[in-house]
């Protein structure tokens, strides 16, 4: 079954009680929706002349479904929220393949045609991906760009999907993914843990100008107020409920919002902020820091 179908449309998603705040991104655009799954994207806010905010994409796929080959002229940083997926893409005339599981982070380079197959056993696949808006024209079906690719590139993708073998040296494996759940946290105590990775811990990130973080707060705990003087931060609530507070650089309150699973927030550089888990359970969130420095 293919993930293909109707396109377009916007909806508000998430549980924030602060819908008017620009620091909660809740206008999701449905790019594709069908019986096999859906793709939706939320766009970053253009802040103080920032012409290239990050977009966040959400991909869900039912068991035994194929996400037909697509093209996007941006680096995709994938995070597997649930399930398992086989990923294939063509980069520099080579077919690159990877099998990813829950917690894995992987990078698909800009300008690659790619596909996804849900290979989990009766489990729905959920992925989150960052899309750097600089120079991008959005999600496009591979067919819309096929004239810019050699015909054999298209055949390579199809042969890989249906399991055919082709000449030696035509297929390469991607760098090993980085698993956020399987590596030691950067910081850990009785109130929670956090992990942050950049190009030093995971070399494929050097192409993106982006770093990644994951935080788990125990019930009633708070991530102490902090700010980022170098980059804008984006976050997605994965589990639980809590509060996010953002303060203007002059010290006045910018936002205090209740959040729950599915909410997306962002914080400009120099804005102090903190996250607080509710007393009902732990709060987990994952996100991207748009550093902007690429190699």
Automatic annotation (TrEMBL):
Pfam families: Cupin_1
InterPro entries per the UniProt record, alphabetical: Cupin_1 (IPR006045), RmlC-like_jellyroll (IPR014710), RmlC_Cupin_sf (IPR011051), Seed_Storage-Functional (IPR050253)
SMART domains noted in UniProt: Cupin_1
Record domain Cupin type-1: where: 23-147, 178-295
Record's protein name: Cupin type-1 domain-containing protein
């Amino acid at each position: 079954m293919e993930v293909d179908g109707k396109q377009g449309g916007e909806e508000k998603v998430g549980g924030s009680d602060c819908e008017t705040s620009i620091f909660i991104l809740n206008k999701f655009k449905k790019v594709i929706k069908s019986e096999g799954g859906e793709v939706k994207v939320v766009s970053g806010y253009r802040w103080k002349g920032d012409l290239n905010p990050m977009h966040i994409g959400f991909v869900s796929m039912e068991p035994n479904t194929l996400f037909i080959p697509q093209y996007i002229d941006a680096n995709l940083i994938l995070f597997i929220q649930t399930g398992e997926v086989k990923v294939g893409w063509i980069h520099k005339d080579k077919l690159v393949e990877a099998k990813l599981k829950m917690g894995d982070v992987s990078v698909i380079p800009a300008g690659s045609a790619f596909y996804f197959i849900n290979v989990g056993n009766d489990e729905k696949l959920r992925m989150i991906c960052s899309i750097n808006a600089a120079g991008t024209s959005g999600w496009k079906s591979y067919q819309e760009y096929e004239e810019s690719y050699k015909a054999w590139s298209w055949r390579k993708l199809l042969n890989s999907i249906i399991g055919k073998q082709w000449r030696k040296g035509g297929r390469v494996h991607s760098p090993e993914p980085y698993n956020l759940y399987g590596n030691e946290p950067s910081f850990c105590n009785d109130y929670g843990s956090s992990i942050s990775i950049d190009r030093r811990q995971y070399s494929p990130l050097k192409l993106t100008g982006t770093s990644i973080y994951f935080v788990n707060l125990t019930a009633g705990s708070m991530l102490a107020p902090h700010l980022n003087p170098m980059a804008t931060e984006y976050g997605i609530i994965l589990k639980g409920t809590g509060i996010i507070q953002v303060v203007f650089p002059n010290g006045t309150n910018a936002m205090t919002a209740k959040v729950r699973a599915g909410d997306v927030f962002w914080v400009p550089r120099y804005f102090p902020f903190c996250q607080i888990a509710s007393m009902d359970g732990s709060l987990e969130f994952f996100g991207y820091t748009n550093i902007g420095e690429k190699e």
